[in-house]
Amino acid sequence: MPVIENNAFVDDAWSHLHDGDSATDRSMIIVPLARLDEALADWPADHRGLGVDVPNDVDVEQLTPHLERLDIVTLNFPGFADGRAFSQARSLRHTDHFGGTIRARGSFLPDQYGFLLQSGVDSFEVSDRFPLDEWVRHADTVPATYQRDYATGGLATRPFAEAGARPDRPHYG
Amino acid sequence: MNDVTEDCSEYVVTANEVLSGDTVFRTPDEKWVRGIDDAAVLKCEDTGFVALGEAQKDEHANIVMGAYLVEVSRESGAVRPVHIRERIRALGPTVRADLAQVAQGFSTSEVVDQ
Amino acid sequence: MNVHVTPEPNMYRYDEFDRNFVDARVAQFRDQVARRLDGTITEDEFKPMRLMNGLYHQLHAYMLRVAVPYGTMSSRQLNVLADIADKYDRGYGHWTTRQNIQYNWIKLEETADILDRLASVEMHAIQTSGNCIRNTTTDAYAGAAADELADPRPVCELIRQWSSLHPEFSYLPRKFKIAVTGSPNDRAAVRVHDIGLRMHLNEKGERGWEVLVGGGQGRTPMVAVTVRDWLAEADLLPYLTAVMRVYNLIGRRDNKYKARIKILVHEMGAEAFSAAVEKEFAEAPKETIEVDARELARITSYFAPPAWESLAAFVPEIEEKKLADRGFRQWLAANTAAHKVPGYTIVNASFKPTGGIPGDATSGQMRAVAKLADEYSFGEVRVTHAQNLTMPHVRTKDLIEVWDKLKELGLAEANIGLIGDIISCPGLDYCALATARSIPVAQEISTRFADIKKQHDVGPLKLNISGCINACGHHHVGHIGILGVDKKGKEFYQITLGGSSAENASIGKILGPGFGADDIAGAVETVVDTYLAVREQGEEFLHTYRRLGAAPFKEALYAGN
What we know:
The structure holds three protein chains of three kinds.
Chain A: E1 3-5, E2 8-10, E3 15-16, E4 29-32, H1 36-42, E5 50-54, E6 72-77, H2 84-95, E7 101-106, H3 113-119, E8 123-125, H4 132-136
Parallel strand pairs in A: 3-4, 4-5, 5-6, 6-7, 7-8
Antiparallel strand pairs in A: 1-2, 1-8
Chain B: E1 10-17, E2 23-26, E3 32-33, E4 42-43, H1 44-55, H2 57-60, E5 64-75, E6 78-81, H3 84-91
Antiparallel strand pairs in B: 1-2, 1-4, 1-5, 2-3, 5-6
Chain C: H1 16-37, H2 43-51, E1 55-57, E2 62-66, E3 72-74, H3 75-88, E4 92-95, E5 101-106, H4 108-119, E6 137-138, H5 153-163, E7 178-181, E8 195-201, E9 207-213, E10 225-232, H6 236-250, H7 261-268, H8 270-283, H9 293-302, H10 316-324, H11 326-335, E11 336-338, E12 344-349, E13 360-362, H12 363-376, E14 380-383, E15 389-395, H13 399-409, E16 423-424, H14 439-448, H15 452-458, E17 463-466, E18 480-487, E19 490-497, E20 509-510, E21 515-516, H16 520-534, H17 541-548, H18 551-558
Parallel strand pairs in C: 6-7, 7-8, 16-17, 17-18
Antiparallel strand pairs in C: 1-2, 2-5, 3-14, 4-5, 4-13, 8-9, 9-10, 11-12, 12-15, 14-15, 18-19, 19-20, 19-21
Helix pairs in contact in C: 1-2, 1-4, 3-4, 3-12, 5-9, 6-8, 7-8, 10-11, 12-13, 14-16, 16-18
């Protein structure tokens, strides 16, 4: 599957661990959440290149103790209207200060690209249904946000009002 | 169903035009019109489903959406849906006679742009 | 030179930031429509996108719901709503219970043009549908009511901005509705909302908010529970964020009928839900989303009170007219409310004419009310959740003139809060989800109670009608509620009694077997006649029902069956 990072297709260095595979001595491997403990136990503490795939009905708080050792967390969209991963991403980034990659997988749409970026997702596993341009332009289709602390890239946010500022006069056309 | 010998219901194919949202019906020559009076009346569900399958090609072409079969009966010669929901959908709101489909002249053939 | 001056009411105004934001959303929607038409996205994918911008597809056509944020608009905006009705619809619109307006005959190909026109007067259709945070509603008398602690609209506007295109909360399990009241007398139905906010003042005079969660109507009506007695105003947005995050993550998505937050609160229990919210609230960094005092001050400054004149509260000619003219007296009693400033009165324009369609407004009526608001109410108009319009700031000494003009317009039916003031959803005449018609039932009941004297004798009575279980007509919280259902292809109507959306909120109880379309209005009349026979002196319908229960009404309706 093509992967988009920083608004460009990138070579995907990661692979998913399949049933029956051993996580030991592998690198750049994403393990299912159910096998995270096993992988962490097998791996030396300073070994890098481990990621975890998290279903969207899981409380990401359970990753908190392990985030230091994880380089990527993949979040899932079973359907584009199922928006749980937005909050999972936000929690990982904002509450847990996770500094690794957060990748979205599944059936999200280009129209959601901007919100995903703003929620903290920075890697996108996509199908070849839409060209790259179609994703990239949606980063700032609405180039402003009321959510100051979600703003990414060049999104505009409202400057704080000066103390005592008076309202503008009406601008009706 | 006085002129129908088979013991089955009659149907018309309906959908909504994507651009306008209007309720439309499928004619015998496979066009879409806004008035149910010009709809092709299909005897028995089997025939209906065949026509519906054809009509659904226009869904893929983004001309109409949500095509389905509506059961109809004849009332004084006119084709009218059996169920109240479909009657209102075909004829317009009962509380605004001025906005009824018939009042707007849609009972005569107005072929939807294709 | 006699130039018609359009006053600019004191309400929120877009700055460059807001304008760019709304313009960009319109352009985005235009682009989404183009991709729907060229097949880049499917109808299934387009549907949530159009819904999030207020565009439904109903029984006959597309329907566009335009936001009137917390029900406040200027006469200039109302005139544009009238223009849209004429140019893009069939000359009318419909006031909704979320203080919005919806148009029934919209074309997809024209929708983005409508949105452009709306944007030119600082209006939009953002999040008037879809599984996102909807238009925040409040007291239609906000900023004017004699009984309010403070104007709740600055906080409503803050919530509007915070919730608009929220990156995290735009794909929720289900729709999400917030209501705010600044008055202890709840005219905003906060107990039947996903989140209700009630303003309180502490002993130091500081504002804080009681947070209620998990109310709602629909299939499973519930009254909200208080999860916080007092929330400091600075914590409002972080706390709302915590509620939304908990709901977004663990609200049910397996069944759309169990996806509202009320089900989550109910299934978890209020305490466990509250604990989950408090945990999230405590853990999530909040310094950047707390209510910035500068920001709230900026918003609040737009809602500065109008330039009140110093007026006498007592106006002799009004008092004389009251004594001399029963019609005026009735109108004054029902259709006006006490204003916080002496010499001013809150005036309602009733969009519930006898036998008419509740909440429908022609473009002519819209323009006429806009003109009246210019002349008599600082150019300001409100949409009420009961589907009427309010002119919030009318000089008491102008009431006779205003009454005369409203009468000419057919908007002076003296029935606000009475049985003729029926809340009704569009029902099967327009709605794709409805199972029965609502409007004809409302029309017949209001015709039976055409005698205004009788309505006044009956007293405060909220009659609400829904055409299906989704309860858009708020039947669960009607003192008398009517629910239309489909029974073997026939319309059938159930009666509920004892609902209320006020501070003493309750969900109505089904009285017994339902009635056919020909019998429902008569059944309602029997219920009202029974009430008249058994009430105590001065006792309102709801209180009689609460005192006696359903028994006398059942007896009157079903005895002998």
